[in-house]
Amino acid sequence: MGSRGGEGVTSGGFWAMGGYARYVWPCFALAISILAWNLWSARRYHEQALLRAERALIMAGSERA
Amino acid sequence: MSVGTWEALSLILRRELLLSFRRPDQLLQPLVFFLIVTTLFPLSLSPQLALLREMAPGVLWVAALLASLLSLDGLFRSDADDGTLEQLALSGQALSAIVIAKTVAHWLVTGAALVVMSPLVATALGMPVAAFAPMMLSLALGTLTLSWLGAIGAGLTVGLRRGNVLLSLIVLPLAMPLLIFGANATDRAIAGASPAGALYFLGALCVFTSTLAPLAATAALRISLE
Amino acid sequence: MWTWFYRLASPPFVYRVAARLTPWLLLFAAAMIVYGLIAGLVFAPPDYQQGDAFRIIYVHAPSAWLSLFAYMTMAVAGGIALIWRIKMGYAVAAAAAPIGASFTILALVTGSLWGKPMWGTYWAWDPRLTSELILLFLYFGVMSLRAAFEDAGRGDRAAALLALVGVVNVPIIHFSVQWWNSLHQGATVAKFAKPDMPGSMLWPLLAMLCGFMLFFGAVLCMRLRGEVLNRERLASWVRGAVKA
Question: Is the pLDDT of residue C172 over 60?
Fold first, then answer.
């Protein structure tokens, strides 16, 4: 069996993955989801940390006042 | 009057044993738990001895693991609660001596007791008498290793209010190799094959853990006491 | 050379450097992953034995590798922090844990999905999958332990110690699980055999591996900034960083 380079994504055979489509595609979908979750979660964590730091600075400033 | 490390160790060991025997109900709890858990399996699966015999090593080992885990939380906790632990830590004695003494005491009272009780349970599960000796040896080695692993977990969680479940969560994955080798040794003994290989691995694990765990457990206790 | 090492212990330095590294790491990660996906899904030939199902290796192997790598990072960083009292180590360890756990879950699910066409069952107590599962338990233990402490510093130290104990156990667990599995090997349980890899199959795999590692670096940097801020909230340098 040769590489499917010539046919590419448009052919139905590609999406069928030789009959294993329902195993292969969920794997890749999950992988993309986990990558996306990591990005989102890290970003959110940083933003929350920034908020808490700002609040701490405000409170420290007001204590001195 | 200064006390040498060995003296301190034996003093604390004696103290622990004394305290344990003063509370016979607490002594018996893990053993009764062991019996109860073992009973759960025939009830939920099948009373047929032939079937039980096949599962016996696994059932025995899981029950022993869980019973040992139950009593681990109390390893440092009661002393931590009334401040004795801090006094011991400040006493100038090596903290590791204290940890070793307490862990050995715990094993004598829990693990060793389980080993003594195991033939009773094994008979109930249909295990042939010929397999008893390897089974008891594997349990002895395994419960000792588990006491060491548990000491690390107990040291880490002694300051936490609900440390009990977390302790099990921490210790059980680390105890899985024990389970594999221990149950397998018993299995082979039942089948008539030589359990030597598995027992050697178990022994190696025990030696390895007994050497390194006291360090880790002492460090864990120090973190909790800071 | 030691000055560079000392600077790594400085929170504002780490905070700044992590910010600068992140976009580059993400860029190269994306490039590698895109190449790996296209080359692996479209251009690599189907495997002789496993057909197109083998392509799952392009996400399963990198995620399994990363799950181990993240754990090692967590353990080493925590160890450095414990031994040399470098607080940034705790921040790195805390940042690495959830990332590693997520990749462990990915490895388990993709491994399970790969198992179904190969063995006919979604779960088969295969030694690698079982070891991955135990690794997940170890991750949860470390994360739960850190979270259980009210005093964050104590939680950091306890979690670091547990990670070290765990890392010593990982080879033991792996070995004992393989030993256990080899005893009970029933019918032909095909392991996750790497198919004989011609270049057209291997290069995408290497690219995905590289891409995932770079991605880990990027996300670690992102999370690390949050961890640093949480630990250094009241330090003077934070004022300038927050306003920015």
Answer: yes
Among B73, B169, B170, B224, the strongest candidate for a mutation testing the C interface, having the largest count of C CBs within 10 A, is B170
Residue of chain A minimizing CA distance to C95: A42
pLDDT in tens, chain A (65 residues): 444 444 566 667 778 777 788 889 999 999 999 999 999 999 999 999 999 999 988 888 776 65
Residue B2 has what pLDDT?
64
- Give the pair of three-digit tokens for residue C220: 């670690």
* Neighboring chain C residues of B226 at a CB cutoff of 8 Å: 154, 157
Q: What mean pLDDT comes out for the span B108-114?
A: 93
Indicate whether C2 belongs to any domain.
no
- Residue span of the structural domain in which B23 resides: 5-225
Model confidence at C189, pLDDT cuts 50, 70, 90, reads: very low
| Position C10 in a domain | no
Q: State how far the Cα of B100 lies from the Cα of C40, in Å rounded to an integer.
A: 55
| Closest-CA residue of chain B to C153 | B223
Q: Which domain holds residue C191?
A: 18-243
Contact between C159 and C146 (Cβ < 8 Å) = yes
CA atoms within 13 A on the CB side of C95: 33
Tell whether C121 is covered by a domain.
yes
Distance from C-alpha of C61 to C-alpha of C197, rounded to nearest angstrom: 14
Residue C47 sits at φ, ψ, to 5 deg, of -75, 150
d(CA B89, CA B221): 9
d(CA C91, CA C96): 9
> The whole model's pTM is what?
0.91
B185 three-class SS: helix
Q: How many domains does chain B have?
A: 1
Residues in CB range of B3: below 8 A, 6 or more apart: B11, B93
Provide the 3-class DSSP secondary structure of residue C149.
Answer: coil
Q: Do C59 and A28 count as a contact with CB atoms less than 8 A apart?
A: yes
**Beta-bridge partner residues of C51:** C47
- Residues B117 and B29: their CA atoms lie apart, in Å, by 13
**What is the distance between the alpha carbons of residues B10 and B16, in angstroms, rounded to a whole number?**
10
In a domain? residue C130: yes
Q: Do C166 and B174 touch (CB under 8 A)?
A: yes
| String of DSSP letters for B149-171 | HHHHHHHHHTTSTTHHHHHHHHH
User: Of B5-14, B93-102, C196-205, which range is least confident?
Assistant: C196-205
Measured in angstroms, the CA of A25 and the nearest CA of chain C are apart by 9
Residues B177-196: what's their mean pLDDT?
A: 91
Ramachandran category for residue B92: left, alpha or beta (phi over 0 → left; psi -120 to 50 → alpha): left
Task: Supply the pLDDT for residue C182.
Answer: 81
